[in-house]
Amino acid sequence: xxxxxxxxxxxxxxxxxxxxxxxxxxxxxxxxxxxxxxxxxxxxxxxxxxxxxxxxxxxxx
Length: 61
Hints:
mainly alpha
């Protein structure tokens, strides 16, 4: 994710999924989750439960 200033493409998990879906050769790309950027984009990582919920949200997309 990007830092989530609101005008950047790819700052939500859904946007990352959409970008990935548009790539023809998906085996040539990957998604790297940087927890600092994930948190800055508004995803809660402050507790174990919040982290698990965030990772479940990522897994859904």
